[in-house]
Write a structure and sequence with these properties.
The complex is a heterodimer of chains A (116) and B (114).
Chain A: E1 4-5, E2 10-14, E3 19-21, E4 24-25, E5 32-39, E6 46-52, E7 60-61, E8 64-69, E9 74-79, E10 88-96, E11 105-106, E12 110-115
Parallel strand pairs in A: 2-12
Antiparallel strand pairs in A: 1-4, 3-9, 5-6, 5-10, 7-8, 8-9, 10-11, 10-12
Chain B: E1 3-7, E2 10-13, E3 19-26, E4 32-38, E5 44-52, E6 55-58, E7 65-70, E8 73-78, E9 87-94, E10 104-105, E11 109-113
Parallel strand pairs in B: 2-11
Antiparallel strand pairs in B: 1-3, 3-8, 4-5, 4-9, 5-6, 7-8, 9-10, 9-11
């Protein structure tokens, strides 16, 4: 079973609108971390935001916020006031504490296109 | 500050040829190191990770191998490339601490096997 599911392969959004990118995860580990990365066409992976499983409040970083709904195992990324430069692939990822040092598990990504 | 270098940026290799991709990290010591592969339009698949010199863990059986000859050097290799080895390869590092631990990625290598 997939541990990270991103159900939106692609999205078109009008500039300045808010965007919500969906992410659901599957784990039985009580301690885990959730991450969002942005990958522009250049290929680099840019860290956006992190949410720990025990964090009481939703994480925010500038225009990015993470809508964390633990009971639903959901960690949606919200981008406020979208800009043309937000066009990119977006990946949701998870790390489980019981997973040791074996890095992050990534979803398949959402291709976001911001239209002027 | 820490930086990660990965090269080459692009590589075109014939089937059956060897491969060597190199990754180095600066500004930190004893990092965890990772090799990921991204097929076209897909997510990232973890290939190898290392928690120390000479310590390599493989996540999937494949035609590739990894080595860590020095603390901040991670090498991805193959003796004979297959067509299916084509993809975008990313090296990454982390501090090894769990809480909030994110991966820092290199700029990637686009490998085309023809």
């Amino acid at each position: 079973a997939q541990k990270i599911t991103q159900t939106q392969p692609g999205m078109f959004v009008q500039e300045k609108e808010a965007v919500t990118l969906d992410c659901t995860y599957d784990t039985s580990d009580p301690s885990y971390g959730l991450f969002w990365y942005k990958q522009p066409s250049s290929g680099e992976m840019i860290f956006l935001i992190y949410q720990g499983s025990y964090d009481q409040q939703n994480a925010t970083e500038g225009r990015y916020s993470l809508n964390f709904q633990k009971a639903r195992k959901s960690a949606n990324l919200v981008i406020s006031a979208s800009q043309l430069g937000d066009s990119a692939m977006y990946f949701c990822a998870m790390r489980e504490r019981g997973g040791g040092a074996d890095g992050l598990t990534f979803g398949k990504g959402t291709h976001l296109i911001i239209q002027p | 500050s820490q930086t990660i270098h990965q090269w080459p940026a692009t590589l075109v290799q014939p089937v059956g040829s060897p491969l060597s991709l190199e990754c180095t990290v600066e500004g930190t010591s004893n990092p965890n190191l990772y090799w990921y592969r991204q097929a076209a339009g897909r997510g990232l698949q973890l290939l190898f990770y290392s928690v120390g010199i000479g310590q390599i863990s493989s996540e999937v059986p494949q035609n590739l191998s990894a080595s860590r000859p020095q603390d901040r050097q991670f090498i991805l290799s193959s003796k004979k490339l297959l067509l299916s080895d084509s993809g975008f390869y990313l090296c990454a590092w982390s501090t090894g601490q769990f809480d909030g631990e994110k991966l820092f990625f290199g700029s990637g290598t686009q490998l085309s096997v023809l």
